[in-house]
Amino acid sequence: MDGHTTCVVVGGGPAGMVLGLLLARAGVDVTVLEKHGDFLRDFRGDTVHPSTLQLLDELGLGERFAALPQSRLDEVAFPLAPGRQIVVADFRRLKTRYPYVAMVPQWDLLNLLAEAGAAEPSFTLRMRTEVTELIRSDGRVRGVRYRGPDGETGELRAELTVACDGRWSLARDQARLPVREFPVPIDAWWFRLPRDPHDDPAGLTPRVGPGRFAVVIPREGYLQIAYIARKGSDARLRARGIEQFRRDIAELAPGFADRVGAIASMDDVKHLDVRLNRLDRWHVPGLLCLGDAAHAMSPIGGVGINLAVQDAVAAATLLAEPLRRGTVTDAELAGVRARRLLPTILVQRLQRLMHRGLVAPILDRRRAGPPRPILALLRRFPFASLGPAYLIGIGVRPEHAPPFARRPPTPVVVDE
Q1: What is the DSSP string of 267-283?
Q2: Which residues are bridge partners to 225 per DSSP?
Q3: Element (H, E) at 124
Q4: pTM
Q5: Least C-beta-crowded within 10 Å: which of 40, 188, 228, 307?
Q6: CA end-to-end span of the chain, whole Å?
């Protein structure tokens, strides 16, 4: 089946869904293609930061988001000794309506955005539709070829194609946009443990041991654990087996020793190949890359979703009018990168500094926590925890909903 739309968005993640919703509210005919049949995938980025919470409010979705099952992180703290910790980032110090990070399963956020999009006449979401190839003619991308739910193939032609299909973006690869890779010393392994009533419900706290550490994220009804170790150690870790992995976790976090049996097998441990990269050029004629397709982020700081969403807001703000008139120039596409490049570079530089100054020394057994000068600063001036909180929660250049996308609050409908 062939068709035409003004803008086709490849990928229904946070960037793709936010972009689709905003453009539809501008009256642009937009189609989002998502290759999966639903949004239910474990261990995707589930942090919704204060700036994104503010955006949802501006879109009239704040009350509906607040009704979703969620937990809230007030701080990021680092343990110093049994019963002692130091707060590295205190979100409660932020002068914002939402001084916390909301932990919400990403599928709930995406379903909320899909429902909001469905209310817009010019929004189309097509699930189980996998993009297989870019359509090109006269030196320009003209849309995509795809495989549909029943294996049927088709073409969807568009004035603009936007790649929001992640760090392994097919659209980016086919456009032959070179990727600049930065060295990363870590990989992450994600798994769940049952939550105990005595667990801290509001803090994100690392557990540190010789050559490894884990980040414990309190979630609604369970704990989400990121086990961090040297890049390239996945085969060795899996070869040691589930019993040794459980012992490693119990040694790293003795308080979890009575729960590690909940990890039934190594199939319950999901490996993330951590990448840190970015494109020097985010577009070719007719195609724009956003989010992880333009810049893969380390999980350190949990800022990937936040940056992807802000990319989408900037793109919608700058491109809605050109798309309404039916022509998008190279200069207008380049304007999106120009607007979002500084925040991307600064966050990636901060992550690289954290890799070198915090993560690598722990993995090399040279240190068991943050550098002493940082600890001394935070002890003497607790207000300094505002700086990391702002960088993580708000960002360098927070984006706000353009006027055409703003709506009054939508009340939550309760079924009787």
Answers
A1: GGSEEE----EEES--E
A2: 191, 216
A3: strand 123-126
A4: 0.92
A5: 40
A6: 41
